[in-house]
Amino acid sequence: MKDTITHQLIRQLHRSPWRLAAVVTGGGSEALSQLLSVPGASDTVLEAVVPYSSVSLEDFLHFKPTHYCSRATAQAMAMRAFFRARDLQSRISPADLDDMHLVGIGCSASLRSLRPKKGQHRVHIAVQTATSSSIASLVLTKDSRDRGREEDVVAALLLNRLADATGFSDRIPLDLLPGEHVDETTANAWPTWTDLLLGKRTAVCVPKAQQDASLDSFSGVLFPGAFNPLHEGHQTMAEVAEEITGHSVDFEISIENVDKPPLDFFHIKSRAEQFEAPQRCWLTKAPTFLDKSKVFPEATFVVGADTIVRIAEPRYYQNSTQLRDAAISEFTQQNCKFLVFPRVVGESFLTFDQLNLPPGLVNLCQPVSASQFRMDISSTEIRTGSF
Q: How high does pLDDT run on average in the chain?
């Protein structure tokens, strides 16, 4: 009976317009096998990847996760898979790309193996579409199943999550033991967030009442950051920047980032909800300051001393000082400036006069003195509870 429902669900998927890319870290590979074993898989599966080693997963994600089996890692995997699906489908059907029927799946699992595990046997499955992000987590009762039975549960859960995201009603029975429970949650996108994700908008303004605001309404002063979370230090920097420039400060969050995983709709929602009128925050897909300067020409960027140092580092320009200097020249052509705040970095308080920056970049900077601003707080310290 269970096999019949599984095959029926997969056949429905293969006959539908949905196209998917999936990435699983070993646990969850049974679901891929089932998807590929039913005729018609070539019409559905664009790519199936199994980054089994930690190094392989880091290559796929483009960063080293804090925990390899976690909700956050599964979410990042699903978002990367979604972008991968979009890239592949755009090359297959460049004139007929159906963004609204693409799905990325990320499965991060720690299941029974030859060596006993100290932690829980668990699985996190994230599904990303153009309109929603979802995550399901399940802790399996330890030492109550062999590896094959654990894989069966994970496969059924993964296919059920896929069915939920794609609108199919069939569900595969889960062989859960007493006390086991699937924790499921979904974040639905604003229509403007979907447009941003798909590249149909350059920027989206929050709060929600201002989501259709034009870039023509940009204040001229931009404070980019992750704001995870937005804290008193950020607010004070914005106030000081407003006093110095005489303009209100708009915040900016890129849903793509050079150093960090792409933001899914859970993260976008939690970040966006921090801003209330009259504050404004622009959501973009501009991960570098060179990208930001093209979206916000003639902007004065509010940055910390550590950020201006990163802007000067050749590693962000393919390890080329020539490309770095070309970017600085483009900042100049775009008439962009940098308002540079002192910042605590490690055990040191870093001020502008301590920095070794290229002369062209120095000419674009206006330092903020320690007497104008000092606040020893960071989002990282707040997240880790060390502040």
A: 93
pLDDT digits (tens, 9 = 90+) for 190-208: 999 999 999 999 999 999 8
**SS3 per-residue string spanning the chain:** CHHHHHHHHHHHHHHCCCEEEEEECCCCHHHHHHHHHCCCHHHCEEEEECCCCHHHHHHHHCCCCCCCCCHHHHHHHHHHHHHHHHHHHHHHCCCCCCHHHEEEEEEEEECCCCCCCCCCEEEEEEEECCCEEEEEEEEECCCCCCHHHHHHHHHHHHHHHHHHHHCCCCCCCCCCCCCCCEEEEEEECCHHHHHHHCCCCCEEEECHHHCCCCHHHCCCEEEECCCCCCCHHHHHHHHHHHHHHCCCEEEEEECCCCCCCCCCHHHHHHHHCCCCCCCCEEEECCCCHHHHHHHCCCCEEEEEHHHHHHHCCHHHHCCCHHHHHHHHHHHHHCCCEEEEECEEECCEEECHHHCCCCHHHHCCEEECCCCCCCCCCCHHHHHHCCC
Domains and CATH numbers, the chain: 2-188 (3.90.950.20), 191-384 (3.40.50)
Q: What is the pTM of this model?
A: 0.90
Q: Which residues pair with 252 in a beta bridge?
A: 224, 282
Question: In 10 A of CB 381, how many CB atoms?
Answer: 14
- Tens of pLDDT, residue by residue over 144-158, are 999 999 999 999 999
Nearest to 130 by CA among 168, 97, 157: 97
Query: pLDDT tens digits for 281-319?
Result: 999 999 999 999 999 999 999 999 999 999 999 998 999
pLDDT at 6 over 70: yes
* pLDDT-above-90 percentage for the chain: 86
43 φψ region: left (φ > 0), alpha (ψ -120 to 50), beta (else)? alpha
